[in-house]
Amino acid sequence: MFRQLLPTDVIVVVATGEMWCEPLHPSEEPFVERAVPKRGREFRAGRACARKGLSALGITDFALCPAPDRSPCWPADVLGSITHRAGLCAAAVCRRSRIVGLGIDVERNVALDPGVIRLVCTEGERAELDGLGSATQWATLVFSAKESIYKSYYPATRTFLDFHDVEVVLFPDCGEFVGHLVTVKAASLEGRREFHGRYACTEEHVFTAVAVE
Ligand SMILES: CC(C)(COP(=O)(O)OP(=O)(O)OC[C@H]1O[C@@H](n2cnc3c(N)ncnc32)[C@H](O)[C@@H]1OP(=O)(O)O)[C@@H](O)C(=O)NCCC(=O)NCCS
After folding, report:
1. Using CA atoms, how far apart are residues 26 and 148, in angstroms rounded to an integer?
2. What is the pTM of this model?
3. Which atom of ligand 1 is nearest to the CA of 106?
């Protein structure tokens, strides 16, 4: 699903069954040696997808270790993003050139709790979602869009964003969204304060992707 949401120069790898137990690079092992099995499996699947994506860019034998803040330390001229949820795992990678930020996210396609919606969506977004009908389901999409935006934004800025720092407008007719950085003091991403993304939904999952060009 991510393939159709991202530009063609982004490599997308979705985990197949055996990738969830693929061996890690020796330097990656310590990061999950004491993890519960579920966490070990998702970490392995993410690294296996990333490894395959990096090898398509000609980069082999690279240990994708997490920084202390948990963000993966990609090779210097590479942008990448990993997501895992509900039996699905994927990675997207590309060379840093035309694209300066890359984020993907998958969520379970279930309605969000009203309390969580208030945490995730601004007042303006909640009014917008009410207008679309089944607001709780649309809120899951806004949540995922914000996760993708954050993943595209953080590696370049090293700045934490709260959910209300970004306001998302959905365009259901074309499966697109735009996130606006509404907190004035939040750093821009190389001058950009608008993040364009695409989304798709299946019965089980919501997929969002952002490639900042
Ligand atoms: C980091 C975060 C975005 C991950 O999203 P998630 O839906 O919980 O989980 P996913 O499975 O989709 O993604 C997890 C992967 O994201 C990557 N990741 C973690 N921190 C990251 C960061 N700061 N920047 C980019 N990628 C990050 C990692 O590869 C991680 O997988 P791994 O630990 O196996 O390597 C989320 O946990 C988080 O901290 N959110 C709070 C900030 C936020 O989203 N603000 C919204 C502002 S608009």
Report:
1. 29
2. 0.96
3. 12
Candidates 69, 70, 71, 74; CA nearest to 11 is 74
Q: In this predicted model, what pLDDT tens digit does every residue of 166-212 receive, in sequence order? A: 999 999 999 999 999 999 889 999 999 999 999 999 999 999 999 99
Q: How many CB atoms lie within 10 A of CB 109?
A: 17
The string of pLDDT tens digits covering residues 32-71 is 999 999 999 999 999 999 999 999 999 999 999 999 999 9
Nearest to 91 by CA among 118, 116, 55, 61: 55
| DSSP percent split of the chain into helix, strand, coil, nearest 5 | 35, 30, 35
* Beta-strand relationship, 11-14 and 78-85: unpaired
Closest ligand 1 atom number to CA of residue 105: 12
CB count within 10 Å of CB 209 equals 31
C-alpha closest to that of 195 among 160, 154, 158: 154
Ligand 1 pocket, mutate which of 121, 147, 205 (most atoms under 8 A from CB): 147
Kindly list the protein residues whose Cβ atom lies closer than 6 A to any atom of ligand 1. 42-43, 46, 66, 69-72, 82-85, 105, 146-147, 149-151, 154-155, 161, 163, 165-166
What φ, ψ does residue 199 adopt, rounded to 5°? Answer: -140, 160
d(CA 43, CA 72): 11
